[in-house]
Specification:
The chain is of the alpha+beta class and 304 residues long. Helices cover 29% and strands 29% of the residues.
């Protein structure tokens, strides 16, 4: 077991583990640590705890010290300098007529590097821009192209639900989201209804996905033939995953070889545990084909 503390360098940023190195570090404190980028200033969001060595990403860096008043002043000075650097970079981008959008600027704590985050539709030749910026700031310059999801995380905003974006407030890592998740939750496959303000599939599609998979176990699909508690065969016309029930139309007159069955007009509702599946889904193939067509169109719009 290894004793570590979890440190975050940005709001809603990824949590990194560090070795407290016998320093009494508590949650909520600010600390100075050594990272691959150099000396950094961060906040302790996970107090000291023991984890397996296999869960540690080597090498495990050490906490140098608890932040002092001077460290806090230096961090605030960097924040002020970032605002000035942002304005200067905007002017230089306009001067060089580059088709790029500046999103954020970040100084490393020791001022060893200035990182400019931007978005663009393709590759950008920013060599002359880097030369200009290096001449102004007299330090190492890094221009880093990011995606639209990272842009939304940095800028923030309100989602379709009316609340602040999850990625900008608490979501540390982006998890893969697929159109299949929307299908399994019986959501509309309209891209405008399942996309966030970044234009990609909403991260919240992932939140309840595992629960929906669990509830769908042994739940008959639409078009599937089942045996009702009355001993009458029927066809599922609708299923409700959250209530774990299905709507069924009884087969009033069986067709030949299970085809062209005549169904009753009345609908009956049954819990999934009260019906028996018969292993036949008449419309499954057709529904999957329709979903695949929708998926292809949607992914053309939402592809990274």
């Amino acid at each position: 077991m290894v004793t570590v503390v979890g440190i975050r360098f940005k709001k809603a940023g990824k949590i990194y583990y560090f070795d407290p190195d016998n320093i009494e570090v508590k949650k909520g404190q600010h600390v100075v640590v050594e990272t691959a980028r150099g000396i950094e200033y961060g906040e302790v969001v996970v107090g000291q705890k023991d984890i397996l060595e296999a869960d540690v990403v080597a090498p495990l860096k050490k906490v140098l010290r608890i932040a002092t008043m001077e460290d806090e002043a230096q961090n605030q000075l960097n924040v002020d300098k970032e605002k000035e650097a942002f304005e200067i970079c905007i002017e230089k981008i306009t001067l060089h007529e580059l088709d790029m959008k500046l999103i954020d600027v970040e100084y490393t704590f020791d001022n060893n590097k200035v990182i400019f985050y931007f978005t663009a539709d393709g590759r950008i030749d920013f060599r002359e821009l880097v030369k200009d910026l290096a001449a102004i700031f007299k330090t190492r310059i890094e221009l880093r192209q990011i995606g639209v999801r990272d842009e939304a995380k940095m800028i923030g905003g309100l989602g379709p639900c009316g609340k602040s974006l999850c990625c900008a407030t608490w979501l540390g890592d982006f998890e893969p989201v697929s159109i299949k998740m929307a299908k399994e939750q019986s959501l509309s496959l309209n891209p405008t209804k399942i996309s966030g303000i970044c234009g990609r599939l909403m991260c919240c599609l992932k939140y309840e996905h595992d629960m929906y998979l669990s509830l769908r176990e042994n739940l008959p699909e639409v078009g599937e033939k089942i045996l009702t508690p009355e001993g009458v065969e029927g066809i599922v016309t609708e299923n409700n995953v959250l209530l774990e029930c299905v709507k069924v139309r009884h087969i009033s007159r069986p067709g030949k070889n299970g085809q062209d069955d005549k169904l009753s007009e009345d609908l009956c509702v049954y819990g999934k545990d009260s019906v028996k599946r018969m292993g036949c889904c008449r419309t499954k193939g057709k529904k999957e084909e329709e979903v695949n067509i929708y998926s292809k169109d949607i992914m053309e719009i939402l592809k990274d």
